[in-house]
Amino acid sequence: MEVKARAPGKIILAGEHAVVHGSTAVAASVNLYTTASVRLPCSSDKDDIVKLQLKDLALEFAWPVSRIKEALGGFVGPISTPTSCPAECLKAIASLVEYQNIPEAKIKLASGVSAFLWLYSSILRFVPVDVAITSELPLGSGLGSSAAFCVAISAALLALSGSVNVDQEQCGWMVCKEDELVLLNKWAFEGEKIIHGKPSGIDNTVSTYGSMIKFRSGSLDLIKSNMPLEMLVTNTKVGRNTKALVAGVSERAIRHPDAMSSVFNAVDSISKELSILLQSSAHDDMSLTQKEEQLAELMEMNQGLLQCMGISHGSIETVLQTTSKYGLVSKLTGAGAGGCVLTLLPNLLSGTIVDEVIAELESCGFECFIAGIGGKGAEISFHDLV
Ligand SMILES: Nc1ncnc2c1ncn2[C@@H]1O[C@H](COP(=O)(O)OP(=O)(O)OP(=O)(O)O)[C@@H](O)[C@H]1O
Ligand SMILES: C[C@@](O)(CCO)CC(=O)[O-]
Ligand SMILES: [Mg+2]
Fold first, then answer.
1. Tell me: the pLDDT tens digits for 243-277?
2. Which of the ligands is closest to the CA of residue 311?
3. How far apart, in whole angstroms, are the C-alpha atoms of residue 160 and residue 1?
4. Among 185, 213, 142, which residue's Cα sits nearest to residue 367?
5. Cα(151) to centroid of ligand 1, in Å?
6. Is residue 200 a contact partner of residue 216, using CB atoms and an 8 Å limit?
7. Ligand 2 first shell, C-beta below 6 A
8. Is residue 355 annotated as a catalytic residue, yes or no?
9. Of the bound ligands, which one is closest to the alpha carbon of residue 193?
10. Is the pTM of this model over 0.90?
11. Domains of the chain in sequence order
12. Which value does ipTM take for this structure?
């Protein structure tokens, strides 16, 4: 038996960073997935081994189960009550990761491997297993790769452990029940904490539930957008690390508490207005073009406040300047300082202009695609092995 779980990445339409400080944010899932495949090993010579394969990165890690159990066994609690990885346990995990000698060029993956070890130990409790990960998401680029990784792994492990009960006879991708989604989201959040330090929980929540969400202080409202939304995503390919950027914004907030609290309040108002705008129905007093103009203005204001937080970057400014030559508005998405930038593509924009913008952005060395947004969240499927 093999269990597969897939979880989408996300874009943040408004509110990144401020959401860590209690402001409202609006996010939507994107149709790029991370998939975790989990199976019990078939040959008895592997019955004391936990294997983690990162297929796209051509990396494979293996640990004796007894070694993981000895290091982490004393720290895990009940599956039904997701718990944070204690500092002492993180140290034990660090030495299990060190033992794998990750090549220096790929050392950023250590935090993902650490999150895996905590989720595996807590959910599967030292059963030998083979886990393989594939992802369509660019890593460390603002599209929520860390959250999709944690949601996909947690979902597959919860399904294998029987804590999530989807119909094993049914073919294809299946969605969990509401209470199971709550449990899945909480475990994924514990993994995100290991990768992000102090996440707000928005990325794992949108990856778990999919669709579009308004999120504030751990609680979510699902949003049904009443306007067609097309976003061009430009990956600047400038690498960055969400944990360090979140910490940097928090340090700025400590240095300038009043000013930064005004910035976070302004972002809160922008996100709330944006969510009302998206949900306002077609027969309300505004044409689609007027709604798009307002949305663009809100995105532009949010981008200005993200610059105030210190997380813009030369590459992001290049995207803003390039798209503005075509009358288009852009904002960074995710943690910033590189990574991905969103550009709103209004409904009546001609395909020729879109092609021209993309060509100009790609001539700067960036990569562009049009995101499918607001689709499915986490899904599980079962496969018999022959
Ligand atoms: N498929 C994967 N395999 C292994 N590790 C992964 C994978 N996806 C994400 N990670 C882990 O997550 C890290 C990237 O997370 P980070 O939060 O910095 O960026 P992001 O989630 O892509 O962007 P953002 O948080 O801004 O949305 C990687 O360095 C790695 O440790
Ligand atoms: C930067 C941030 O706001 C979003 C990262 O996608 C961090 C978080 O909310 O956890
Ligand atoms: Mg992340």
1. 999 999 999 999 999 999 999 999 999 999 999 99
2. 2
3. 9
4. 142
5. 12
6. no
7. 12, 16-17, 19-20, 144, 196, 199-200, 202-203, 242, 246, 334-335
8. no
9. 2
10. yes
11. 2-222+374-383 (3.30.230.10), 226-371 (3.30.70.890)
12. 0.99
